[in-house]
Amino acid sequence: TPMKDVVLDATLFDGALAVRRASVADLAGATLKVSGDLKGLGAIPAMKGVSFEFGAKNLSRFFRLVGIDSPIPPRRLGKVKLDGEITGSLLKPEIDLRLKAAGADVRLNGPVSLLPPGPSFEGTLSVRHPNLARLLATLGTDYRPSGRLGALRLSAAVEGDATTLSLSEIDAKLGKVAVEGRASVDWSGPR
């Protein structure tokens, strides 16, 4: 069975759902914990104090269960932990996410809009990794540096939707090299 030790401790009253604890101890090799409040269930719900924690020593079984065909073999990511908080309207929640995977520490925060014309995000991104060469190898690049690269430190403002991604106010250090500026990608045209 892909799911074991499911716990739900919640109260549904007067159009509000208070989740004190929802957890799955084993979800195809992963764990999940959620708590927080969902109010206004009769209209557009709003979240308050919703926090979650997802973790796995190896994502292979979980990816198979949910049908994710990752371009990076899940074993390369090593132990993975994703946690965060979500507040605000269900249509435009404010997120604060932290991801630890492949030795990297990633943080993303800001509002996500689920309103038409489609999902979009505007916020901040930070990425830290102690060994840039190891991270590039984990991501499947063929780059082989002639010497030690050092650590990666990046922070930027980020905007994106289903077809574009823009980073501005980039402040990065790739080993000893400082990088500033902006970058963008557009997936809307032919490839």
How many alpha or pi helices? 2
Which segments are poorly predicted (pLDDT under 50) over 5 or more consecutive residues?
A: none
Rg over C-alpha atoms, rounded to the nearest angstrom: 19 Å
SS elements, strand count: 11
Account of the protein in words:
The longest helix has 7 residues, at 60-66. This protein has 191 residues and is mainly beta. 4% of the residues are buried. It has an eleven-stranded antiparallel β-sheet, with no helix packed on it. It has helices spanning 60-66, 132-138; strands spanning 3-13, 16-27, 30-39, 46-56, 80-89, 94-101, 104-113, 120-129, 152-161, 164-174, 177-186. Strand 9 and strand 10 (164-174) form a beta hairpin.
Topology of this structure?
Elements: E1 3-13, E2 16-27, E3 30-39, E4 46-56, H1 60-66, E5 80-89, E6 94-101, E7 104-113, E8 120-129, H2 132-138, E9 152-161, E10 164-174, E11 177-186
Antiparallel strand pairs: 1-2, 2-3, 3-4, 4-5, 5-6, 6-7, 7-8, 8-9, 9-10, 10-11
Task: Summarize the entry for a quick read.
This protein has helices at 60-66, 132-138; strands at 3-13, 16-27, 30-39, 46-56, 80-89, 94-101, 104-113, 120-129, 152-161, 164-174, 177-186. By secondary structure, the chain is mainly beta.
Please describe the structure with a list of short key phrases separated by commas or semicolons.
single chain; mainly beta; eleven-stranded antiparallel β-sheet; 11 strands; 7% helix; globular
